[in-house]
Each structure stands twice: as C-alpha cells, then as structure tokens.
# Entry
Amino acid sequence: MHMAKTLKIALLIVAFGAILGTYSVMAYLTDSKTVRNVFTLGGVSIELIESNWNPEDAKNVGPGQTVSKNPVIKNIGYDSAFVYIKIVVPKVILSNGKVGPLFTYNIGSDWKEITSKAEDDDTTYTKVYYHTSSLSQGDSTQPLFTEVTVANYSPTVTGEQFFHVIGFGIQAETDDDEETIIEAYDSF
# Structure
C-alpha cells in the first residue's frame, strides 16, 4: 500500500513536470508585441460671436429704433462645417393692430432662410438660416445681419423682451449645394 501511494505521488510529479515542461517550451516558442496607435478624431465646434452687440444699447428702446447686432459663426473645430443660426423673437400686436415680430432685420447675402423650418406659435416667430457655403477650420461667416429694428408696436408691449440667437454647426462631408445643406440640418 505504501508503495502504491509512492507510485501515485511519483506519477503526479512526472505529470506535473511534463505539463510544466510543455508550457515552458511554449513560452520559449511564442512572442507578443503591442503597438499603441493614437487617432485624433475631428470634431465640429463653433463660436457664436456678436462683436457689435452692446446690451446697454438695447435698454429703453422704442418703436422704429435700430440697435447694432451682428451674429457671426466661427468654426473652431477640426472639420469643415455647415452652419446655421436660429432666431426666435416675440410675436406682438403692432400699432396697426396686426400681429407681427417685435424685431426685424435684413439678412446678409451669404445667408438663406430654410423656410421649411419657420416655426410660429402663439407667442414667437422662429426662423432658421443657413450659410451658403461650409466653413473650414478657423473661418468665420459674414454677419447674418448687422442691426435689428424695433417694430412699431402697440403701447401694451412693455418690459424686457427677448431676441434669441442660436448657432449650430454640422460636419460638412459633401458639396455646398443648397439641398445638401438643408438635408444636413433636417438630419440634425
């Protein structure tokens, strides 16, 4: 019995040695290397700039007054971008009794309205404009407009009123045709 136990231990030692030897040989016959590749992905990043806007000029304005306001988009990202500006202004009763926007402006020649995105509700007018060409890294648009004019509104309009300017950028991967620019916005 003692000899059978010794034989079992010896066989286990031999088996363990064989396994260890196999793995040792495999370790000598294999190799591994790792290479770390770093990719910097582009990105769309914009700034909305209004260099001529002075909030003090917009205090205590009245009908027909004009205030300097010049929204410009600058591409500060890595990729070319189609750029858009959304304008939201209050809907008010004008002095002629009709409903209209409290502020008006004339858009620059490099901009066009996406008429399918005009949204009007009970209190606001919303318009979306696109720049007619994509912006490369570091490029800026011309201003969407250079000034806004306060409408001839009813005397019932008082207090602080808003004029929202919201900029958007979408990666430009194709031509600058009107259809592509509008489709890019629609998919946004």
Remarks:
- The chain has two domains: 1-32, 46-186.
